[in-house]
Design goal:
Blueprint: H1 3-9, H2 12-78, H3 82-108, H4 113-141, H5 145-153, H6 155-180
């Protein structure tokens, strides 16, 4: 007796049950495969959220703090009392702390050599900018507003500021592009 004859001789109830069992097995295999793929997607999403999305937010915070630093340094030109100078200097110090904490957070999430290189570029640009900041703070304590104004308009300071801006924008663009992948 062949398989075909054996199948033909089965009752309708057994044939339906066998067909149902076969469909159930196929659905189980497809479902199991789907669950495995969902776990992969979940892992990818968690990685993207941890390393890319949080970094973009942190870089935005760094950029805002840096802009406030620039505004406060310009405020030194018009600060008319030593109290105002001290308040601006205190604010600048707190903003630099925010920048430092933000860079440390982004550094922890850096996964590639390109990320680490961009962080190094940002740190170098900030170090260069910070030298101008220190000069301005010293001149503000000495009440030398004219020299502060000259430094603020200095091409070196403008280039340092553009370098910091460019480094932050480059990192945000890279992280945003990574989110699209």
């Amino acid at each position: 007796m062949s398989i075909r004859e054996g199948f033909t001789n089965l009752s309708l109830r057994v044939k339906l049950f066998a067909g149902f069992l076969l469909v159930t097995c196929i659905a189980g295999i497809i479902g199991g495969f789907g669950i495995l793929k969902l776990k992969t997607i979940d892992t990818s999403y968690a990685r993207m959220h941890e390393y890319e999305t949080k970094s973009v937010v942190t870089l935005g915070e760094i950029g805002m703090a840096y802009m406030h630093i620039r505004v406060n340094l310009r405020g030194m030109v018009v600060a008319d009392t030593m109290t105002a100078v001290r308040d601006l200097a205190t604010s600048i110090g707190k903003l630099y702390d925010t920048v430092d904490v933000g860079i440390a957070e982004v550094e922890k999430r850096a996964v590639s050599a390109e990320d680490r290189n961009m962080i190094g570029d940002l740190k170098n640009a900030l170090t260069n900018y910070e030298s101008y900041k220190e000069k301005i703070l010293q001149l503000a304590v000495q009440n030398n507003r004219d020299e502060i104004g000259r430094i603020i308009q200095d091409e070196g300071l403008q280039n340092a500021a553009k370098a910091v801006d460019g480094a932050i924008k480059k990192m945000i663009e890279a992280k945003t592009a990574a989110l699209g992948r």
